[in-house]
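User: Hi! I'm working on a homework problem where we have to compare a predicted structure to a textbook description. Could you give me the structure for the chain below?
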Amino acid sequence: MALPNSAPRVESFFHRDTNTFTHVVFDRDGGAAAIVDPVLDYDPAAARTATASADAVLAFVRERNLRVEWILETHAHADHLSAGDYLRDTLDARLAIGRGIVGVQAHFKRFFGLGEAFVADGSQFDCLFDDGDTFAIGELPCRVMATPGHTADSLTYVVGDAAFIGDTLFAPETGSARTDFPGGNATQLYASIQRILALPEDTRLFLCHDYPPNTRTPMASTTIDVQREHNPHVRNAIAASEYVALRRARDAMLPVPRLILPALQVNIRGGRLPEPDADGVRYLRLPLNRIGAG
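Assistant: Happy to help. Predicted structure tokens:
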């Protein structure tokens, strides 16, 4: 069992428009905290951003008198825009992601034609974590696990008895994350899931997304036992070859994420919007006929 002082408190916020969870993990009221996977509101029809969801997280932080030390990204998301840069500036916190972001940036720099103005070296973040790195949130010990497969830069943050697993596993009936993005790999994701399931049995697994049926409310966390018993991509000790075949068949039927083009341009920058043009307006690029079915 986890020691009492290694059991963090976690408050979760569900962003219904993108089915994304943001988690605030902290040691105590008036103590230290980290924010995991914050969301920037985005209206794709109007190309307008807003900070209402991030401001709700800020309100909680201020209500509990928390000192936010870290903004932690589990990976460069393709389904929502990150509020990482906004919260970093507001809270004077450090923004962190996996070192694999450098390769992700290099790929999408070419894909979006960003030119020399965009530097693909991870410098948009304050800290690039490697597998096995350790850090602390106040009195809470934290460990970094590389869990690639969905993306090359995917990380799991193990904070005491809580693991923030990003896009690896979802709620049991939903299965696991897609692996058809650049840098995705179903064999790697299978291995990453096995690492997560090898954590201590009492580890709480905090999800980045949930897509609940009408019969239940969104599920912010799950357990290793529940995943093993009920997740069709995990249960019955599924073999790697069977998982890879299942995952690839599923990926072939999935649509392109609704916000992938704006999200990746913002998220490889750590949540910072592109610099304004000479007219003072910020622009995103839309490469035509590059993704999706012909």
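For your comparison, note the following. Residues 52-63 form the longest helix (12 residues). Helices lie at 52-63, 84-91, 101-112, 186-197, 224-230, 240-251, 260-267. Good luck with the assignment!
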